[in-house]
Amino acid sequence: MYWSKYFIPTLKEVPLGTEALSHQLLLRAGLVHMLTSGVYSYLPLGLRVLRKMEGIIREEMNASGAQELLMPTLQPLELWKKTGRDQILKDVMITFKDCRGREMCLGPTHEEVVTDLVKDFVQSYRQLPIVLYQIQTKFRDELRTRFGIVRACEFMMKDAYSFDRDQEGLKKNYQLMYEAYTRIFKRCGLETVILEADSGAMGGDISHEFLVVAPIGEDAILICPSCHFKKRMKDDRGAGEVCSQCGKEKLRKEVAIELGHVFQLGTKYSQAQGASFLDADGKQKPIMMGCYGIGVSRLIAAIIEKNNDEKGIIWPKEVAPFAVEILVLSGAGEDGSIMNYAKQLYSDLTSSGVEVLLDDRQESAGYKFNDADLIGIPLRINIGNRYLKEGSVEIKIRKTNEVLTLAKDKVKEKLQELLNLR
Predict the structure, then answer these.
(1) 186 FRET partner, CA 20 to 30 A, in 286, 316, 389, 402?
(2) In this structure, is residue 244 part of a structural domain?
(3) DSSP category for residue 105
(4) What is the CATH number of the domain that holds 364?
(5) Strands of 20-125, DSSP E
């Protein structure tokens, strides 16, 4: 992609009313645009990041045996009345009557819908287990939107649902999802804290949260600097106390953002909605369920919070919008030789499957450098007068700010090494 033909509206100044660093960088790097409080457009660069994360999630979910589907955003409120969650979640549900007078809502989640779907098709134990998932927009009427896309009214979520014959089957699928989540967050460059959690409005007996320590967090946790023991902080107590596990150091308070949550739901929804099956003995039994969510859009904010410096974003390789940026220094090589080489390198790399952004704009070197650091592509190739004089170019590694000077015929080989291309 040529920058001159791509829509990347970067900003020099920090937008007013933005308290979170990730929110500021999302706006400044031209990744998102706020339509109104809690409602955002994903611009081309931001959408590429979103799709990268969705790709990672799909790979890991599919590898665990889950199957993707897509369910309606528009839901009849009647389903929610069967489980009583129309009242439990009434403060955040966006409800209305359609032109036929039916009570409807924009789905804040899909437990009721997926249970209704499976109920219509699963009758026998031979059809179980099943794990279904989707990546879809959710809607919640948040009274207090915070930190940009972290707590928004419209957001992307991956929600999965398991259906089993018994508790043992549920435990097995729960463990598979637990392990898939661990891999997903690791591939996104995040170190997670996993804690037992309250199931809340979702229901069920057992649940775990996947959290990342970050300034935008809304959960308080306690961590031991010595043995790394972690637990949830309750009633603002525990900070400064000696760790009960190792007895060496005092527990330190941290704030963390929830990125994923897994639940063993049991039969809460299947019993309420009549989702049952015939077991091997011909007896009718309610289906055992689990549900598993990841906040896909807030995952972007968490990655930025953990990967940045004073100049901008530093994307981990697997989620970066592009792998390489080629930056042509304006004014160098007025005969067009530098741009010709840049375009040829761009063509060679893209033909090899490398995602490349070529900054071909007629702007000053400083302007281009600032934009490049702001959007945070992992590797940058600077092509300027040194190419004309010595036949060499620079490769800058965004994460370390290390600059390598290489002969032009060594560039592709070095990039493959840096990108770990197989």
Answers:
(1) 402
(2) no
(3) E
(4) 3.40.50.800
(5) 32-36, 39-42, 67-68, 74-76, 94-97, 103-106
pTM (2 d.p.): 0.93
What residues form DSSP beta bridges with 254? 221
> Whole-angstrom distance between the N-terminal and C-terminal Cα of the chain?
23
Give the other-Cβ count within 10 Å of 249's Cβ: 14
Determine the angle formed by the axes of helices 296-306 and 21-28, rounding to 10 degrees: 100
Three-class secondary structure of residue 237 per DSSP: strand
Question: Which residue is it, tokens 């804040």?
Answer: 108
Q: Which domain holds residue 415?
A: 322-419
Residue 270 phi, psi dihedral angles, 5° rounding: -65, -40
**Contact between residue 26 and residue 42 where contact means Cβ atoms under 8 Å apart:** no
pLDDT at residue 335, rounded to an integer: 62
Residue 385 is predicted with a pLDDT of 82
What domain count does the chain have?
A: 2
CA angle 374, 314, 177 (to 5 degrees): 135
310-359 residue pLDDT tens: 999 999 999 999 999 999 986 655 667 889 999 999 999 999 999 999 99
* Average pLDDT over all residues of the chain: 94
Say if strands 392-397 and 379-383 run parallel, antiparallel, or are unpaired.
Answer: antiparallel
Residue 245 lies in a domain: no
Q: Is 396 helix (H, G, I), strand (E, B) or coil?
A: strand
CA distance 331 to 348: 24
